[in-house]
């Protein structure tokens, strides 16, 4: 355990020293190489964030990004034969990028590496195959802001009209929650990523108290898995706020709803983390292994947050809300 921790810290120090953006121009050989993200077979959120981290690393360093489409994605519960193709179109991550199928590999030395600290700084013409570049992205999460415009262009390249759950209401604030259930339970292997109904109620009450002070109307939408009775405490406590719950909803509709939220309550998951990177709303982040951006609000252990920062974020969002066009 200690050996793994020391190795992880050392790797991050190497990456921080090499790739801090003020020093990138010291390594011109990188700009004569290629990088692609491939070889993963977990969920759509995890794979998308892995690709985004690789695109971020590539755009920051000048190494040429090459897009490898999704090959195998988990949670295809309906055995959709076009599952990976549908996700590829939905995110549009390959739009405007060099495709791996178009790259002439005859004169390229391609290397599969486990982390970007292994990339040599004096080599040219290599193609590096990585599963992710989180070590870089997690060191510099705010760099995702520089990527946001490009990511939104990709995301908008495929119409989301069929995935809009409700008409966007400019006269009220939409609070959208992503609650991890299913494989995430209160006890067991992934219990650290579980958030109880009581904790969610506490967080909602803190948000609602501020919104009520501003005399604003609101709605609450919950996206999760399981049975209706699993969420009884939340529904009973907030039944006066036009609360709707979507269980086992189409994952494309779910993701698009998270992106379009006025106030997004993230779960400890890459699915809602990825949606937050695209969102123009207020993001409330519950700490897990991918760090927040500096304009996100962070939940503390009492499921509260910086109320002054929230108030400022709310006022800014309200000034922009009328010009917001949902996807």
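Sequence proposed for the structure above (327 residues):
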């Amino acid at each position: 355990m200690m050996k793994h921790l020391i190795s992880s810290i050392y790797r991050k120090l190497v990456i921080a020293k090499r790739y801090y953006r003020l020093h990138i121009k010291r390594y011109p050989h990188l700009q004569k190489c290629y990088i692609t993200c491939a070889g993963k077979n977990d969920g759509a959120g995890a794979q998308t964030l892995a690709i985004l981290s690789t695109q971020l690393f590539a755009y920051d360093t000048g190494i040429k990004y090459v897009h490898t489409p999704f090959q195998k994605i988990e949670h295809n519960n309906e055995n959709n034969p076009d599952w990976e193709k549908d996700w590829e179109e939905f995110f549009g991550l390959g739009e405007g990028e060099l495709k791996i199928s178009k790259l002439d590999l005859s004169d390229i030395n391609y290397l599969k590496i486990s982390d970007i600290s292994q990339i040599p700084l004096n080599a040219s013409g290599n193609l590096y195959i990585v599963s992710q570049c989180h070590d870089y992205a997690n060191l510099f999460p705010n760099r995702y802001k520089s990527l946001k415009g490009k990511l939104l262009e990709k995301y908008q390249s495929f119409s989301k009209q069929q995935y809009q759950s409700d008409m966007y209401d400019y006269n009220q604030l939409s609070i959208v929650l992503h609650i991890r259930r299913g494989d995430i339970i209160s006890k067991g292997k992934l219990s650290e990523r579980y958030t109880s109904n009581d904790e969610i109620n506490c967080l909602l009450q803190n948000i609602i108290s501020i919104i009520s002070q501003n005399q604003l109307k609101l709605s609450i939408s919950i996206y999760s898995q399981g049975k209706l009775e699993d969420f009884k405490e939340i529904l009973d406590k907030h039944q006066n706020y036009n609360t709707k719950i979507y269980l086992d909803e189409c994952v494309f509709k779910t993701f698009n709803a998270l992106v379009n939220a006025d106030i997004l309550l993230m779960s400890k998951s890459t699915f809602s983390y990825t949606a937050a990177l695209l969102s123009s709303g207020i993001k409330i982040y519950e700490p897990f292994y991918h760090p927040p951006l500096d304009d996100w609000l962070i939940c503390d252990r009492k499921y509260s947050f910086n109320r002054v920062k929230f108030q400022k974020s709310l006022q800014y969002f309200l000034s922009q809300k009328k010009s917001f066009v949902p996807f």
